[in-house]
Write a structure and sequence with these properties.
Bound molecules: nicotinamide-adenine-dinucleotide, uridine-diphosphate-N-acetylglucosamine
Structural class: alpha/beta
Number of strands: 13
Strand content: 15-25%
């Protein structure tokens, strides 16, 4: 299949491109590099040993996207393009609503004009909000998001559902990611956040490599077994494989569907530090700080639906996630820079 990855130069997109290309699919990447490096393209090409078709464009700009869609005629789109920093979305909500929602609307308009009927969308566990019991199941009510980033995901899911309802030929697959971490086993590609990392794993990895003085653990008084928050961390290559399964599903099924992609097994912040220290042999300096606004004590996925319908299951362990993160970070101490 010919698959267009919108936002394909980013962390999840680059790993997904590798997974799909290695399974024989033809990949087109469209990105404006607002949160990624052009160097990632060479790295992907090195892993897959063939050139990619790549376009630099702002996906919300219809005049840029129309000719790309007409020229490439993809069989399926994977829509990963979006701004994703929670804190930044609180400070600058309009930019987040504009970018995230407009990219989705433009893609849907261009799909209609070019008769592209399949789209897989990067959503997040954040749409389950603050009130659902755990584990999260796809049938639960969404909403009560704690920040504008989460609301953009909530709204984009709704837009895509309405589009699928109006056009019975459309196939829309929503993937709700839990906490993606890790890197490709080659160490060629990995997570390279701009500035100070917001997320736990890149912060730990950058502390290990000496770029950060120490990690601050946001709260140790949560009602969890060791007082620190627990999350469902998932290896980014397992997530990439979930996209492969979703694309295959979209080929054979019309309509709207939602799948959680998680392991179902939560780990606490202290357990993650411990696992990383074991994998890397490096001691992580940390101190306890205040709770971070918007953090929930713990949540994890019920991914039975993805297993039953997509035939997908996460297979990589926490040891694999830490080993591959460290392999990427120690080979690329300053990321792609
Ligand atoms: P990322 O920032 O590494 O990748 C997103 C890519 O989209 C970047 O390369 C960026 O340059 C590009 N982009 C953004 N706006 C664009 C625009 N207007 N035009 C063209 N390109 C644009 O993020 P990621 O971690 O790879 O996440 C991919 C998707 O998955 C995002 O939508 C994110 O919200 C979602 N998601 C990520 C996580 C996570 O923990 N990483 C969790 C849940 C959901
Ligand atoms: C966060 C976002 C979520 C988003 C996801 C992926 C919030 C409230 N949630 O999820 O909406 O979909 O990232 O981008 O921001 N931690 C520390 N010290 C750090 C960093 C993190 O202790 O320096 C802790 C956090 O408190 C949390 C855990 O580590 O308990 C995981 O944090 P993080 O990696 O940011 O993911 P989430 O908070 O689960």
């Amino acid at each position: 299949m010919k698959i267009l990855l919108a936002g394909g130069a980013g962390y999840i997109g680059s790993h997904t491109a590798v997974e799909l290309a290695q399974k024989g699919h033809e990949i087109i990447i469209v990105d404006n590099y607002s949160n990624s490096s052009k160097k990632v393209i060479d790295r992907i090409e090195k892993i897959i040993s063939r050139p990619l078709e790549v376009f630099e464009a702002d996906i919300k700009d219809k005049e840029s996207m129309q000719p790309i869609m007409k020229e490439t005629k993809p069989d399926c789109i994977i829509h990963l393009a979006g701004l994703k920093a929670v804190g930044e979305s609180i400070e600058n909500p309009v930019e987040y609503y504009r970018n995230n929602i407009d990219t989705t609307l433009t893609l849907l308009e261009c799909m209609k004009e070019s008769s592209v009927k399949r789209i897989v969308f990067s959503s997040s566990a954040t749409v389950y909000g603050e009130e659902n019991p755990i584990p999260y199941v796809e049938t639960m009510k969404k909403g009560n998001c704690s920040n504008p980033y989460g609301w953009t995901k909530y709204m984009m899911e709704q837009i895509l559902e309405d589009a699928a309802c109006a056009d019975k030929e459309l196939s829309v697959v929503i993937l709700r990611y839990f906490n993606p971490i890790g890197a490709h086993i080659s160490g060629e590609i990995g997570e390279d956040p701009q500035g100070v990392p917001n997320n736990l794993m890149p912060y730990i990895a950058q502390t290990a490599v000496g770029r950060r003085e120490h990690l601050t653990i946001f709260g140790n008084d949560y009602p969890t077994k060791d007082g620190t928050c627990r999350r469902d961390y998932i290896h980014v290559m397992d997530l990439a494989n979930g996209h492969l399964k979703a694309v295959e599903y979209a080929e054979n099924n019309k309509g709207f569907d939602v799948f959680n992609l998680g392991t179902g097994e939560p780990y606490s912040v202290l357990e993650m530090i411990n696992a990383f220290e074991k994998a890397s042999g490096v001691k992580i300096k940390y101190e306890f700080g205040n709770r971070r606004a918007g953090d929930l004590p713990e949540y994890w996925a019920d991914s039975k639906k993805a297993q039953e319908i997509l035939g997908w299951k996460a297979v990589r362990t926490i040891e694999d996630m830490c080993r591959d993160t460290w392999n990427w970070q120690k080979n690329n101490p300053v990321g792609y820079a």
